[in-house]
Amino acid sequence: MKRWRWGVLGTGNIVAKGGAGIQRSANGEWLGVAGRNPENGRRAAETYGVPRAYAGYRELLDDPDIDAVYIALLNHLHLEWALEAVKAGKHVLLEKPFALNERDARIIVEAARSRGVRVEEAFVWRHMEGHAAAREAIRDGKIGEPVFFRGHFSFTAAGNSTRLVEEWGGGALYDIGCYLVAWSRYQFGEEPTYADCRFTRDEGTRLDRRFAGTLAFPGGGTAHMTGAIDMPYGCGYEIKGTRGGLEVRQFADAGSITLQVTLNGETRDFVTDRIEPFRLQAERFAERAGASDPMPDGGEAILAQARVMDALFASGDEGGRVRVKTGSA
Question: What is the DSSP string of 116-183?
Fold first, then answer.
């Protein structure tokens, strides 16, 4: 079995989990790390026991020993450095949100197609069993036809958080709203046709601290979503169906994450440590990157998510319902 040699761009908090997941993976090793300056890279390498520290992002990408990169940079840097990684022939696992809009996402995806490498949006929730259990219950008809999705995600960002910097791609929808969009698409099993959203923004800026959005799905489902980065923690969603309902609630502490899934009144807890989902993400990414076709959907899952995010932002700007663009638009 090939052992994939990973490089990490970024030294922020998420790297403690994402990098540790790579180290724990059965088919990978964390070979190198780079920060925005040499000292940050050196300090991260010492902290996490990584063999190589680089003077900067470019030096890491120029290392022929690196097979894949995990990019955990500020949102506004995703396009630039994902493109540079792809051009260097690296497979790219790119932290959410994949890009600031569908246009930028398409540029990265098309470059990856041309280069024959895999790019993927790093949504670690995909590797938490509770969400898949909820989806399976829906597919098995346990709640009848899913009709209404209601989700909420909030927490209080620190005053110096990068999430509060507009120029860096901050804001509630980018940071946590992307989860609610992804969960509703995943559980309904189709793409929405219309979006409607309202934002609470800092005066004189486009930085959204809160949002309330609605997505309409072609099969008749409706998703209502609220999120905030200036409210107490809360995370989860419920889905009402024609014959029942389910709820997924997320609880987290420093060591573990619990997804509490209640299906028609019966509750089951899915508990994992904070690193395990990142391990699974790294392993599965490497397996897919090593396939004869590393991106069999052509990146459509990435672009579909980006189109919905674009529609929500456009609705807020226009003050009304907006049609979500299709892949052929």
Answer: T--EEEE-GGGG-HHHHHHHHHHHTTTTSSEEEEEEEEEEE--TT-GGG-GGGT-SHIIIIIHHHHHH
Which helix (H) or strand (E) segment holds residue 16: the answer is helix 14-24
Using the predicted structure, report yes or no on whether residue 329 has a pLDDT greater than 70.
Answer: no
The number of CA neighbours under 13 Å toward the Cβ of 285 is 34
Vertex 173 angle, CA 13 and 257, to 5°: 45
Query: Are 118 and 138 within one domain?
Result: no
Tell how strand 146-156 and strand 230-241 pair up. antiparallel
pTM of the model: 0.97
Strands 222-228 and 208-216, bridge-based pairing? antiparallel
62 shares its domain with 194: no
How much is the pLDDT for 32? 98
Instruction: List pLDDT tens digits, range 45-102.
Output: 999 999 999 999 999 999 999 999 999 999 999 999 999 999 999 999 999 999 999 9
SS3 state at 57: helix
Q: How far apart are CA 241 and CA 255, in angstroms?
A: 34
Structural domain count, the chain: 2
Question: How many CB atoms within 10 Å of residue 64?
Answer: 8
Would you place residue 320 in the very low, low, confident or very high pLDDT band (cuts 50, 70, 90)? very high
Q: Are 168 and 115 a contacting pair, CB within 8 Å?
A: no
CATH at 234 = 3.30.360.10
